[in-house]
Amino acid sequence: MFGKYPEINASADLLVVGAGPAGIAAALDGARSGAKVTLVDENPISAALMGMDVPLFYGQRMTTAVQQKERMVEQLLKSNPGIEAAFEAGVEVLLGTYVWGAFVNGPGVQSLPGRIAGLADETRAWLLRFDRIVIATGARDLVLSFRGAELPGVMGANAMNALLSRYDAFDGHRLVVLGSGALALTTALAARDRGLDIAAIVEVRDEPQGPPELVAELTRRGVQILTSDVIVEARGGVAGVTEAILVDLDNGAERVIACDTVCLAIGLVPNIELVDVLGCKLVASSQRGGHVPVLDENGQASLPGAYVVGDAAGVDDGGDAYRIDWMQALEKTGGGDVKICLCEEVTRAELAGVKPPRYLGPRPQKIENRSLATMLGDGPLNHDQMKRLTRVSMGACQARRCREQVALKLALVAGVTPGEIPLAGYRAPVRPLPLNVLATIDESSEMREHWERWLGVPGKL
After folding, report:
1. What CA–CA distance (Å, rounded) separates 128 from 99?
2. How far apart are CA 388 and CA 437, in angstroms?
3. SS3 sequence, the chain?
4. With contact defined as beta carbons under 8 Å apart, do 91 and 37 qualify?
5. Strands 240-248, 229-237: pairing kind
6. Bond preceding residue 434 cis, omega within 30 of 0
7. Helices 212-220 and 182-193, packing angle to 10 deg
């Protein structure tokens, strides 16, 4: 297939992925140096991607305003003036566009016609050749499950902040916030500033974890912080959450709190999909949010000409110990029937028992006797292996809602740190890509001749 790649439709000296503060700064620096810069940002996110909880855990808590593309673009430009500055500096800015893959020649392939990125919007896909790339894709929400976590209204803190400040499209009024670190406290303050009611901040540890000045400010505003408590269930119906059931970890007492939103603000996870697909070296770092790229003092990854900046390079996180405390409290109170993978509906017990999907029918006794504990005798536990055996992490959200908690579960069973569990591999496309959009990629004349000569069929049927 050498020389038979699709047409390359665009090129850039520097490709910047993500128009947050770090990405804008990189694009402006590139433009000032005289480089041809393309800045790609997937915002405004399409309503379809939001509905699949991609790239953040939106939890169906957005208003119908997200279906109005022009309004979304207007809100985005209003909330991010750096985009206009990039336009004025001569940067090619592509909004509502995502990079679904990035590819370079390496051990597995030597025939690529340069460094290639796959781009797409809602209607078409195309390829761009680049010399250097800056990955500024930010961070996503850490999701830990409990009963009812699939209900509309259960969402992540980064998604809530996006709906509040970027899009002005949040459809909630009364919140329960899980976690009490800086992320949780700043999210709660942002919601209060918008006139929303914070029913409670819930913390599994015996004291708040965030900056004391933020705790004091929320207390002054009448927000209660419940320590040594954990959520056991979100209740509601098709319209969404109506109440959260909490359990006191000291005495087992339950309390019911009326709310329409449960916001997971326990932690964030760096978006490293493109970093992994490019083949850059990664390292597990408890204090930086999980697996992160290995970078030199200039932010360059192991692949020359590839740089990672901002939250994609690591977040200031509470560390593995904090996540484990939450995971153990949720398991202790919620039991094994809680869905750890919301897309494929795999429960904690089914993952622990390494059970194949229920739709395959009755299970042989040999499989019934298998478990994570018995598999330890065959070697270290592996997330990718669990995907094949149970379909955990194989859903439409591309594991954004379960990747970390599956790794935490495997680590707890194996008695190792989460960083010792091999990272489940990312694959292109790193965003859900409809086949009708993928089919718009132009075929080269060499590809068309190849199909006609060898297969007897014309290219682009």
Report:
1. 10
2. 27
3. CCCCCCCCCEEEEEEEECCCHHHHHHHHHHHHCCCCEEEEECCCCCHHHHHCCCCCCCCCCECHHHHCHHHHHHHHHHHCCHHHHHHHCCCEEEECCEEEEEECCECCECCCCCEEEEEECCCCEEEEEEEEEEECCCEEECCCCCECCCCCCEEEHHHHHHHHHHCCCECCCEEEEECCCHHHHHHHHHHHHCCCEEEEEEECCCCCCCCHHHHHHHHHCCCCEEECEEEEEEEEECCEEEEEEEEECCCCCEEEEECCEEEECCCEEECCHHHHHHCCCEEEEHHHCEEEECCCCCCECCCCCEEECHHHHCCCCCCHHHHHHHHHHHHHHHCCCCEEECCCCEEHHHHHCCCCCHHHCCCCHHHHCCCHHHHHHHCCCCHHHHHHHHCCCCCCCCCCCCHHHHHHHHHHHHCCCHHHCCCCCCCCCCCCCCHHHHCCCCCCHHHHHHHHHHHCCCCCC
4. yes
5. antiparallel
6. no
7. 30
The confidence score (pLDDT) of residue 430 equals 95
Structure tokens at 164: 């509040």
What confidence category does residue 1 fall into, taking pLDDT thresholds of 50, 70 and 90?
Answer: very low
Tokens 């978006």 correspond to 271
Rounded to a whole number, what is the largest CA-CA distance in the chain?
Answer: 75
Scored b (16 or more CB within 10 A) or e, 111-132 reads eeeebbbbbbbeebbbbbbbeb
**Which residue do the tokens 């208003």 mark?**
63
pTM, rounded to two decimals: 0.93
Question: CB neighbours of 160 closer than 8 A, spacing ≥ 6?
Answer: 61, 170, 187, 191, 261, 263
CA pair distance 346, 217, nearest whole angstrom: 40
For residue 282 the two structure tokens come to: 């990664």
* 142 in Cβ contact with 267 (< 8 Å): yes
Could you report the per-residue pLDDT of 145-202, keeping only the tens digit for each? 999 999 999 999 999 999 999 999 999 999 999 999 999 999 999 999 999 999 999 9
Whose tokens are 């020649």? That residue is 105
- pLDDT (tens digit, 9 = 90+) per residue, 240-289? 999 999 999 999 999 999 999 999 999 999 999 999 999 999 999 999 99
Reported as a single tens digit per residue, the pLDDT across 93-108 is 999 999 999 999 988 7
